[in-house]
């Protein structure tokens, strides 16, 4: 009995939510497009080919960069994503920055990747790499990379480490700490 | 005695967990170009065991480690079928091996493999590396991961390792077909120009 009531309440909530979304959409037509445009801007996604991405893998500003190659459909990648998020938050004041490089397919940027970033509330910077000529850019990321994801680079100026593996939070933290000195 | 029986599931769990922990350490030092590959005996989706030695008339093999669930592998399914259609009659048939732990990836289990092969119309065997002993020997790290073997008196020799071609997204935009170039060279008795390439892929689930 209780369960039924709960279900009904839930259904009402859902239908209300849909209604309010519809209302929002109609509001857009009435000239409040700015708000929506701003929301879109938040999930705006920078898409690079490797040449465009390369400077982000080779900054020399004394900061520690943790660069993770991932995709929304990659189960071990998604599993370890919260650890990168947690690291980004916990070490923000220690000059550490996380960059998430998505290898999702371009036709899924709008349908999968952007909603994923929004729904999970991802705070780390996310960019997409769209460069089909993998044999050219994989060895440039790291000469030892066989090409599987997840893969992660940790670097500070000229010091760098490459990992073709999954991480736990502790493992990730342990690899980042030596870069902090 | 009762106590022991009660404890048994726990003991088994500990053993199972520790077994998986050991499994995590995958030896990436697989075959190099020029190495002689060991034969294998793996179960095909039709239930029969398949080995390289079964192919009496083959000159070699196009071996692919692939699976149902990796989008990069799926992108290449049609191109793998085309490779088999083009080269099986010339003596280089495709053999596909699914290397993932199906507990981790139920979408790659034996039934799912059968369905995928049927719906895509695979013209080649689709084998399951259920003990996960074959892919480490090859040093396969991801799906898709390709190996071209040439039969010699010493055994099957690894001649090419890497990608199928240079565009994982769009078959129509490919400029270099690495596998075709490698097999064509072998058929012509020439040296393969590009013996190793890097391919993007999904890590093999252990």
From TrEMBL, chain A:
Transcription as UniProt keyword: no
Pfam families: AhpC-TSA
InterPro entries with a match to the protein in the record: AhpC/TSA (IPR000866), Thioredoxin-like_sf (IPR036249), Thioredoxin_CS (IPR017937), Thioredoxin_domain (IPR013766), Thioredoxin_ResA/DsbE_sf (IPR050553)
SUPFAM superfamilies: Thioredoxin-like
Keyword Cytoplasm among UniProt keywords: no
Domain Thioredoxin: from-to ranges: 28-181
Stored PROSITE patterns: PROKAR_LIPOPROTEIN (PS51257), THIOREDOXIN_1 (PS00194), THIOREDOXIN_2 (PS51352)
Name of the molecule in the record: TlpA family protein disulfide reductase
Species in which this protein is naturally found: Aestuariibaculum sediminum
Automatic annotation (TrEMBL), chain B:
Xref: InterPro entries: AhpC/TSA (IPR000866), PRX-like1 (IPR047262), Thioredoxin-like_sf (IPR036249), Thioredoxin_domain (IPR013766)
Signal sequence interval, chain numbering: 1-21
MF (Gene Ontology): antioxidant activity; oxidoreductase activity
Keywords on record: Signal
Domain Thioredoxin residues, every copy: 31-188
Superkingdom in the source lineage: Bacteria
Disulfide bond listed as a keyword: no
Protein name: Thioredoxin family protein
Species per Swiss-Prot/TrEMBL record: Aestuariibaculum sediminum
